[in-house]
Amino acid sequence: MKRIVVGLVLLFAADLGFGEFIKESWSYAELYEMADLVVIGRAQQTKETAEKAFMGGSGHIFELDNRTADGKTRIFHDRYGVKISSLVGPDDTGWEVVGQSTEFLVASVMKGDKHTHDFILHHYRFAKSYPMGPKSPLLLSFREDPKNLVKFLPNYLLFLKKEADGRYAPLHSDLRPPKPAVWRLEQASKEKP
Amino acid sequence: MKQIVVGLVLLLAADLGFGREVAHASYRHLYSDSDLVVIAKPRGTTFTQEKTKLDGIEVLGVTTEFKVVVVMKGDNTLKQFVLHHYAERQDRLANGLNLVWFPYDPKQPSASSSYLLFLRMEADGRYAPVNTQADPALSSVVKLPARGD
């Protein structure tokens, strides 16, 4: 009986999250704990990459597997080889995204290699225009600095995971709804007592 | 005539807006100079008996209790601390200080914002903004979006 209940719970979780771990929100403490690098930095320049993929509602990246597609059912697999037949999003195919690389200058390292002066942030933009909904991914874009007026650019607090190619990605996997790990810093409240 | 008016306006603006020197520090320096760097949530503010002047402006002493969310530098076991800061006695049109105030509703403690704070420890065990008490809102105290504890 116990096995049946556990099985049903796992099936329910898989149906909701497509195999992802479901969690409503992460605290700053959890983000800090799981990050390889926590920094304050300024975006310098964004370059588009050749990477094209599909993004699930959790922020996971999936690639369309044409080899197993039967013409009706499209199969996606994530970077860990997990296969699914539909994604949350428009037409259950997720959101089509294009890879971006943004160069960051580090102002301060909170966690990780204290000698990090710059890094490349790997993120995505939508490949086309989508209507935004509550399950839509929250993708990043940064103001360009063509005249090198770096002192006027905003600072960001970033919780990052190192990728195999040396770039860093926002720590946001396993979240539903997605919670970004990149925050634009604001001045503290100057409200009167 | 037009040039005279423009000149007077510029002089007035300079007098009103740029009369007080404001301390700026990079985040790198703020971090290295701090005894404690934390993300924390306010848990209530009280005025103290302290009355003093910052850059010639009269201020009142204030303490705000904070609950620690994550320690980024300093004592990892710290769960809470008291921030010593100031509030202006009178509103000013210009040349005011850049002080901080932390809205907190005890009925909705989780609704309050989180803050990134760069702090130095004072002799009495309280913490203060690391670079200056006059303009903490410009660098030492950074507002973050509200999240769960």
List keywords for this structure.
heterodimer, A: 193 residues, mainly beta, OB fold (Dihydrolipoamide Acetyltransferase, E2P), nine-stranded antiparallel β-sheet, 2 helices, B: 149 residues, alpha+beta, six-stranded antiparallel β-sheet, 15% helix
Describe this structure in words.
The complex is a heterodimer of chains A (193) and B (149). Chain A has 193 residues and is mainly beta. Chain A has a domain at 23-51 and 98-184: OB fold (Dihydrolipoamide Acetyltransferase, E2P), CATH 2.40.50. Chain A has helices at residues 2-17, 28-34; strands at residues 37-55, 61-65, 75-78, 83-84, 95-111, 118-126, 156-162, 168-170, 182-184, 186-187. In chain A, strands 1, 2, 3, 4, 5, 6, 7, 8 and 9 form a nine-stranded antiparallel beta sheet that branches. In chain A, a hairpin with a 6-residue loop joins strand 5 and strand 6 (118-126). Chain A starts with a helix and ends in a 6-residue tail after the last strand. Chain B has one domain (2-144): OB fold (Dihydrolipoamide Acetyltransferase, E2P), CATH 2.40.50.120. Helices cover 15% and strands 40% of the residues of chain B. Chain B is built from two helices and six strands, in the order H-H-E-E-E-E-E-E. Chain B has helices at 2-17, 27-33; strands at residues 36-54, 57-73, 80-88, 114-121, 127-129, 141-144. Chain B starts with a helix and ends in a 5-residue tail after the last strand. Chain A binds chain B through residues 25-29, 32-33, 38, 40, 107-111, 155, 157, 179, 183, 185-193, and chain B through 26-28, 30-31, 37, 39, 45, 47, 62, 69-70, 72-73, 87, 91, 98-103, 113-116, 136-138, 141-145, 147-149.
